Amino acid sequence: MAKNNSIHEEDAAIANEATHLLPSGSESQDALSETSSNTPAWDGLKDFEGLPWWRQPSVYWLLGPYVIFTLAFGGVVVPKLDLILDLVCKQYFADQHSRNPDKVFMPVLLGTDNPQCQIPEVSADSAKFLLVMGLFTGVLSAVVAPKIGHLSDRYGRTRLMALASVGGVLNEFITILVAKYPDTIDYRWLLLGSIFDGMTGSFTAGSVMSQSYTSDCTPPSKRAVFMGYMHACLFAGLAFGPLLGGYFVKWTGSLVSIFYVVMGCHFAFMLFVWLVVPESLSERRQLIAREKHQKEKEMRSQTSASWVATLQNANPFTPLKILWPTGPGTSPALRRNLIALAIDDTIILGASMSAGAVIVLYTGLVYHWDTLDKSKFVSLLSFVRVVILMGIFPIINYFGRTRPAARRRRESGVAAVEKNNGADSLDILVLRVALLSDVVGSLGYVFARSSGVFVASGMVTALGGLGSATGQAIITKHVPSEKVGQLLGAIGMLHALARVFGPVIFNGVFALTAGRFDQAIFVLLASVFGAALVISFTIRPHVMWEDEQPEEEREPLNPTNEAFALSSDQLPIDEEDQLRIQGAWFTVVDSHLYNSSGRHSGNSTSPSNWSMLTSRAWASVQSRSVIARGIMTAAGAAGRTVKFGPFEVTNQVFLTTPHSFALVNLKPLIPGHVLVCPHNPHKRLTDLTPTETADLFTTVQLTQRLLARAHFRTPEPEAGSFSVAVQDGADAGQTVPHVHVHVVPRTAGDMGSPDAVYVKLAGEEGNVGGALWDHEMGARPQPGGGLNRVDDEDRKPRSAEEMVEEAERYKAILKEMGVQ
Predict the structure, then answer these.
(1) Which end of the chain is least crowded, N or C, by CB within 10 Å?
(2) Which residues pair with residue 675 across a beta bridge?
């Protein structure tokens, strides 16, 4: 017992002193800083490692320009409406004068108060013209936006994001010409500007590109927050843009001046995105996406007749097929989630944008608000949304996702690799809360009989701003990275259609019910958001489109020494990392076996020395970046057959790593007795490579943490003890010619004497090979075959169902620990 305690104390001391045993040099210091950051690995930007900061993509590159862009977008809305109203009015009275030459009409001056224009005929003509402009822009952008999104997966985001601004530049240029020369250029030429804007995707394509860029640059755990930042920029533009635009027109005394500013903002945004912002898709990922697209085209050409393919390509709704994917890696749950998320996101955006103008009209009709009151309400509502998205949402993400993930990393000792894994529970909860706030706020609008209650209801709906950011972040987590642009393009198509038909529906309902039941529009709004809330309950967590192409093997099944003799500059990155691990391992081995004078220390590889050696080696290996890439997984055998010696044990495996696996025992000494083995069927421990050895004992450590959660009173390993043993060779009791480590959770009095486990391992209780042979083969080989029969009536072999149930229980615990 004293010996065991001293061993534990020595191991603890080693763990505390590991930093002094690491190799010297800048490389080890970098590794230490990388490990100490305790940040989950994410390989989304690994292609940009080593590049200077100005060539590394980040969402922060977009935030500043996007704020300016949205301020210009919001600032031009009211001036453009006023300009169109004045131009239509000018044309109306010109037509009236041609019919009645003797009648005198007051002249219409652009950008000034023209009370003669406040007549139903001019309002009707203006509404019709705005509707036609909206149809041109909306329909064209609905067709173009998904194509731009799909193209961006293959050719990058930034160039196509810049292209989306070209239409805005041309649109504002035509607006300036019409406003500057109203007597020469007919106002209907503004339709050409709408066509140009729609042909390049308009605001919809720009939004799709910015969201795709954000998805490329941010890990799944932070994606919703950064999507929220982009939406906050939009709301900031809507909140302050109209005020800034109004003051600018008043300051310059010219309505046309604001359009020069907006055109300049479009042009500056286009140049900045094209020339300055780093591309978020590396050349490698672009080439992979192009190759996949080419293969898909070839498969379609082989399986479809030419006229059918032509008809499909001509179908404007073809981009929506991405919302109902079929083939390898897809599932019914994936299709249900994508459809539900697409409907919810379209409702959130369409209803919010379509109802905005009607809400402003309602406040003037019911509460008699003037222009200033309406502007204050819209600005306050947008400002609260900005605060929620940029202030409250990051706090929610920190306490709901970041801190629990950090706790799981501390408990498991493994920094899990972040990857798209569908929506998590927090995503779904935030989406439902946002939709619920929209429902409650809309009902508040219905029953509000004072302006104070109405404003309070509006502040409740401001919480719904989380819905769009969260919904779009969730959508990107459902598909492989090379399909994000295509998927968001399809969502953009739905957004564009919602912007076309939503105002028609909401304005029509308001026109039919005004004066009879003014609140009908809010009943419709609450019903629409209520339907979206119900649909959100069909979304299931952790569902995603699995990549149909399996990951290539990182190294040969049986690596040879010759493979390790290659120079590192001839190896791919994964093998370079393996060489770094070997270097770290051998450095620690040398420091243990040889003293400072270079002579052999004389230490033997006793169990305590081996434990010390393993701990020190792993302390060094853990500081290498390859650990983040060699993430452990609770996905069982990942679809392949796993063998323990000659026995197939796939269903008993509950944990796999790049080089090891853990399985439940057929006849455990006590509950929780499991085995950890290398994938390669090495007979002896000395046959393992340094990489395999490090991985094997790292897996043992993780298994200990798992068993502590499953079998101790508290989840910490310190709440109990473990017996960890390797029977290396037949004379030591090894009966399966495949290296395996026994991991046995221990509590006081579980076996009588604490050392009884070693007696049992040496007897029939530890005869793993004999038990498996009895279970699968029947009669065991007679003496001479290497296995001697020892009766043990107390321990009965378990059924396959019992072992599978235990394995599934351990997998669930691993998932709770953040080991996916």
Answers:
(1) N
(2) 663, 742
pLDDT of residue 763: 55
Amino acid at 535: I
Could you tell me the two tokens for 319? 């981009």
> Count of residues for the chain?
820
Q: Which residues contact 475 (CB under 8 A, 6 or more apart)?
A: 338, 341, 342, 345, 487, 488, 491
3-state secondary structure 744-807: EEECCCCCCCCCHHHHHHHCHHHCHHHHHHHHHHCCCCCCCCCCCCCCCCCCCCCCHHHHHHHH
Q: Which of 662, 337, 282 is nearest to 481 (CA)?
A: 282
Query: In which region does residue 762 sit, left (phi positive, over 0), alpha (psi from -120 to 50) or beta (all else)?
Result: alpha
In this structure, what are the phi and psi dihedrals at residue 653, rounded to the nearest 5 degrees?
A: -80, 130
Q: Strand 660-664 relative to strand 674-678: parallel, antiparallel, unpaired?
A: antiparallel
pLDDT digits (tens, 9 = 90+) for 153-165: 889 999 999 988 8
The DSSP secondary structure of 548-616, one letter per residue, reads SSPPPPSS-SS--HHHHTS-GGGS-HHHHHHHHHHHHHHHHHHHHHB-TTSSB------HHHHHHHHHH
Q: Are 814 and 635 in contact (CB under 8 A)?
A: no
Sign of the torsion angle spanned by Cα atoms 617, 619, 623, 626: positive
Residue with tokens 């706790």: 407
Residue 756: how many CB atoms within 10 A of its CB? 14
* Residue carrying structure tokens 């977009």: 62
Q: How far apart are the first and last CA of the chain?
A: 38
Query: Tokens at residue 755, please?
Result: 């050392």
How far is it, in rounded angstroms, from Cα 709 to Cα 412? 10
Give the three-state DSSP class for 277.
coil
Cα gap 750→754, rounded to integer Å: 8
Kind of pairing between the strands at 674-678 and 647-648: unpaired
Distance CA 393, CA 226 (A): 10
Q: Which two tokens stand for residue 427?
A: 């995503």
Among residues 245, 109, 164, which one has the least CA distance to residue 489? 164
The first and second tokens of residue 737, run together, are: 């010619």
**Residues catalogued as catalytic:** 740
Question: Dihedral of the CA atoms 757, 760, 765, 770 (nearest 10)?
Answer: 120
Of the CA atoms within 13 Å of residue 530, those in its CB half-sphere come to: 10
* Gap between the Cα atoms of 391 and 205, Å rounded: 27
398 burial (CB, 10 Å; 0-12 / 13-18 / 19+) is middle
Res 252: pLDDT? 82
User: Quick count: other Cβ atoms within 10 Å of Cβ 564?
Assistant: 16
Helices and strands counted in the chain (H then E)? 30, 7
C-beta separation of 164 from 200 below 8 A: yes
Residues of the chain short of pLDDT 70, as ranges, are 1-41, 43, 104, 111-112, 300-314, 370-372, 412-418, 547-639, 751-796, 820
CB of 389 closer than 8 Å to CB of 232: yes
Q: DSSP string of 112-180?
A: S--GGG-SHHHHHHHHHHHHHHHHHHHHHHHHHHHHHHHHHHHH-SHHHHHHHHHHHHHHHHHHHHHHH
DSSP letter string over 699-715?
Answer: HHHHHHHHHHHHHSSSS
Question: Which DSSP symbol is given to 391?
Answer: I
Task: Find out whether 165 and 266 touch, Cβ atoms under 8 Å.
Answer: yes
Give the 3-state secondary structure of 138-157: HHHHHHHHHHHHHHHHHHCC
Q: Which residues contact 102 (CB under 8 A, 6 or more apart)?
A: none
**Strand residues in 409-451 grouped as ranges (E):** none
Cβ 145 vs Cβ 200: under 8 Å: no
